[in-house]
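Regression test case RT-17, inverse folding.

Input:
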């Protein structure tokens, strides 16, 4: 049975070379300088003293032909995950370090930043710099300390932006209590699908007329309503001028021209679509069917049988993301006499007295996804894919795991779920108390609404 970590202590990484944890609101100033190559950045886990030589898993730097700039490491990872130019746009500067030590890069749609304080949470750790207020201040004469507009028309006694008459905030995704603004109707589906609450932040204005059409300002940028659908305004050049960022294109030299196929070093063992095509990436783990499915730009590119946690060590359900990757990992833990995992390596100390240790060396192609140290990885110790087998991780055939490792950069969304009307496999004969505890654990892990029928079959 595979060794799967269950409750790894949350790791807090700090980057060296001046890239320490930075406040999300930090803004770069004039005089920013190029940062060292991302692969030279050293990260140290203060709890385990584990060292990681790169903040991103992409081992190469690529040259982006449309704009003549390079991308690398974790910024490249998140660029690939979000669909390259369809969300962040293409790079218009080289990576640089702000005076506050934030590793950043100007893109066509804004400035993206690596925020290591989010690295061991369930949130993305690359986001747009929150420059919306900065640009709004330029456009509207500035904001007072209380957030009200100082000039530019409107009721001087009202907030900078007023809600449309009759608008309701109840239950609206994206509602920002601090400024009383909701995500406007033309943008809500787009906002949800792209996890824009993380990347783009909260809305700053209601729906307004700007740049020739309907628009809405957010903390990280400006959304425009266009005939083909919502699109982020190209604010990167404006910010680069405003902040003194050098946007001079660089020579390609011997760098490869960016293409998704560069990162796919092994063949897709179960091809269903173009894994090297455009669009956002996401992973679905269907626990009921015991299958993993990869999606690229809306099309399914792979489907394979897997093995999730054997009851009672169920794989946590919920919406997660690829948070950390290792080509090989030794996994050790211990269970009680009923099979419950009671300790894993990484928690400190050793196996409790009377527990049953387990361990496997060189587990291949490991993608950690949640705060319970559960991962997608290859399994060489069994071939029973299609049924639950693990201590909580998501076991994959070796060829599938190798492909998924290449295909899924840091930040790739992962949804783990049971189908509606079903319970977790193996829980059919569980007691009501066991089902209630399972539902409680799932909720505590930040998962989806509980699929467990408490007291049912």
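Golden output:
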């Amino acid at each position: 049975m595979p060794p799967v970590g269950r409750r790894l202590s949350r790791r807090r990484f700090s980057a060296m070379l001046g890239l320490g944890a930075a406040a999300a609101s930090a803004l770069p100033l004039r005089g920013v300088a190029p940062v060292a190559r991302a692969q030279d950045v050293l990260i140290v886990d203060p709890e385990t003293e584990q060292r990681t030589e790169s903040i991103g898993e992409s081992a190469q730097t690529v040259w982006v032909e449309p704009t003549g700039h390079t991308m690398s490491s974790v910024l490249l990872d998140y660029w690939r995950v979000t669909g390259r130019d369809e969300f962040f746009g293409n790079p218009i500067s080289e990576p640089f370090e702000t005076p506050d030590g934030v590793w950043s890069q100007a893109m066509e749609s804004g400035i993206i930043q690596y925020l290591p304080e989010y690295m061991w949470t369930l949130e993305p750790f690359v986001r747009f710099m929150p420059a919306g207020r900065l640009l709004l201040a330029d456009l509207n004469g500035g904001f007072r300390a209380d957030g009200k507009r100082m000039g530019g028309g409107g009721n001087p006694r009202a907030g900078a932006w007023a809600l449309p008459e009759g608008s309701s905030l109840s239950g609206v995704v994206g509602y920002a209590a601090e400024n009383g603004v909701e995500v406007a109707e033309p943008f809500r589906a787009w906002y949800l699908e792209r996890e824009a609450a993380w990347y783009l932040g909260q809305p700053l204005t209601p729906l307004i007329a700007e740049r020739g059409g309907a628009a809405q300002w957010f903390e990280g940028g400006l959304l425009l309503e266009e005939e083909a659908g919502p699109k982020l305004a190209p604010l990167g050049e404006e910010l680069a001028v405003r902040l003194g960022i050098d946007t001079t294109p660089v020579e390609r030299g011997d760098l490869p021209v960016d293409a998704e196929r560069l990162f796919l070093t092994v063949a897709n063992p179960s091809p269903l679509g173009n894994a090297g095509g455009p669009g956002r990436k996401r992973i679905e783990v269907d626990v009921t069917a015991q299958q993993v499915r990869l999606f690229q730009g809306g099309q399914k590119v792979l489907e394979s049988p897997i093995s999730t946690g054997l009851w009672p060590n169920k794989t946590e359900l919920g919406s997660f993301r690829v948070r950390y990757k290792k080509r090989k990992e030794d996994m050790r833990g211990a269970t009680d006499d009923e099979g419950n995992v009671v300790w894993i390596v990484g928690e400190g100390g050793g196996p409790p007295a009377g527990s049953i240790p387990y361990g496997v060396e060189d587990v291949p192609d490991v993608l950690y996804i949640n705060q319970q140290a559960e991962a997608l990885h290859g399994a060489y110790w069994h071939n029973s894919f299609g049924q639950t087998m693990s201590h909580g991780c998501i076991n994959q055939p070796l060829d599938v795991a190798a492909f998924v490792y290449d295909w899924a950069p840091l930040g790739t969304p992962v949804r783990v779920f049971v189908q509606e009307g079903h319970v977790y496999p193996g829980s059919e004969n569980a007691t009501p108390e066991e089902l209630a505890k399972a539902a409680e654990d799932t909720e505590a892990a930040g998962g989806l609404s509980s699929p467990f029928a408490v007291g049912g079959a």
